[in-house]
Amino acid sequence: MKKRFGLLLAIIVALFMTVVPLNAQHAQAADNSLAEIQKKGTLVMGTSPDYPPYEFQATVNGKSTVVGMDIQIGKKVAKDLGVKLKVKSMSFDSLLVALQTGKIDMIISGMNPTPARRKNVAFTHVYYQGGYSIVVNKTDKAKYKDKDSFKGGTLAAQTGTTQYNAIKKQTSGTKTKGMTSQSDLILALQSHKVDGVAMEKPSAQAYVSNNKSLASIPSHFNMSSSATSSAIAFRKGSTSLVNEVNKTVDQIKKQNLVKKQYLPAAGKYLKTNSVDTSMPHYWKAFATGVEYTLIITVCSVFFGFIIGILLALARMAKGNPLKTALRWLATAYVEFIRGTPMMVQVMFVYFGLGLFVNLPALTSGIIAISLNSGAYVAEYIRGGINSVNIGQTEAARSLGMSNGATMRYVILPQALKNIWPSLGNEFITLIKDSSIVSIIGVTELIYQSNIVRSDTYRGVAPIVVIMVLYFIMTFTASRILNYFERRMQHD
Fold it and tell me: Where are the transmembrane segments (predicted)?
């Protein structure tokens, strides 16, 4: 099933790896994990809701909700601990880092308690023992029999999972394809980008039962019991909490609640999902995505512009050693931000700073995008200032204006007029780049489209809708910016 860190997360962990071990050692020295949860009164469960019937999105009473057998297990764990359950959705590759940095208290997401993972987190007893199947297009069912039938073809799985590693190690002459989302994998399968998708048997059954164009075949992977079982993950050293939760897990297994209650309940939601899968039915989800996209964009543009002005002025500072130091710091900042991917920056702000300050996902996203935008805006402004004729500065100084007043009232207004097209382009770019924050669970447009795809099992239609919505937003913003640009030129 699902496994280990992704490459980007490994980079982030390396950046603050000296801090995490200290936290882990402290936790082992004084284990009060159970008392802390009970004192807090809430238990934050991290999950990746794209893996039916374990966890997935369903419309319940007109509202998109995370449901599935893992959610039922999480509710029982929280009830037995006497606390409230809070479910936090994020990509599977982000879960382990989120657990280690305190963003979540536990992971219930069909996670396998493999030896490699046990080195980093503490697992409860196994609550479910499963197996693997391969989903193929129904038209290809006669062509493929198991994993060995895909020689010369492409077999896919969710990145970071045990299925993905099994494909690489246990197949020959087969191309391995990995994606972060199950819904993306199914879309790739239906569009014939891949020939088969390896996943858990219950998940395969869920997709096949809700899509008549799909079929499942045996995988015949040679897997250990730990690679086909699911357990709950907690931070390393949370012995008292794990021991208490083990009582709940043992009760679930003794009463066979997974097969008797939790899986049938998940199946009911899967049937509900297929009642109305038209895109207008999910207009609220898309509207919420547009709302958060605009909030992130507007806030990031505002703060990015302020940061950009400060950085531009710092980069142009000359004179005493303090100004020289500021110039070097500003230059280093701009070069570093422009030289690293925004995705890594978003994840570092959310997870890295999360070691010290527990920032919400939305706030972290705005901060990261603002810091990124500020570096680019700084260069636009610096170029704009340099484009203003030196005679403007000399004329202002001859009238008795100070350096500050000259910059504020004479240079910057003219520079802004010169760089307005570049600033407008930055605004348009941020509307699209805001989609990156979906990786930390911010409910912007991409995140909402993934919810709809998981809810409806339709891959293309939600993508078409968000393409249209992004175009409407960018085209409208472009027309507004062009209007003000014409006004500036007229003035």
Answer: 292-314, 348-371, 460-481
